# Entry
Amino acid sequence: MNTNTVKFGLIGMTALVAAFSSIGALATEFERTVDIKMFAPKNGDRVGLGGRGWFVDLAISFEHPLAATGFSGFQLTGPAVHNNVAPFPGTFSLGIDDRLPGLIVLLDTTAGGAKSCQNIANLFNLTGVTDIKEGSTELWDTWLVGAPNFGVNTVSNILVAVAADLNQDGIFNDAPAVIPDANGDGVCDKSDLKAFGLASNIQKAKFFINP
# Structure
């Protein structure tokens, strides 16, 4: 076998491996059974006043019954006296959402906790069930930002996803309090979310937080 034959054989094998990798990536996309739509913020929006009074508003559709979504109850909550009180109690803090524990929300202008790697899903105020059909569930989740803790007069980027069922218990409740910085670059982004493991698409937006 001459050198050229070996060379072209290696090129062919490389192309074949790349093709199978692409097919595998597409298969992973198609196998996702959770879909997120983000109504606010949108790319290019200029939100709030003085860093507060803006929303993150989500609809999350599961191709699964309600019990598999991880949903643990309605919430209407917030900081201080609104934290974990009737009629729809829910805790209010950084970290995993006690009402929707599969949700991951990252904001690169987060000032506290682990900064861009900090899951802030437990700051969401309003969670409810908007549609149930046989074998599928839609939940809505909303956060009204009440304090200028996420930037003022600055560009910000948000990422939203639902974690995969990593422990294989049949429930989407495996979001972390902090996303691991998989590539060690000091910033958590889409690549780190994908490395962690997702059941959903990633919703993202680049927007401006008003002074």
Remarks:
- The two ends are 70 Å apart (CA to CA).
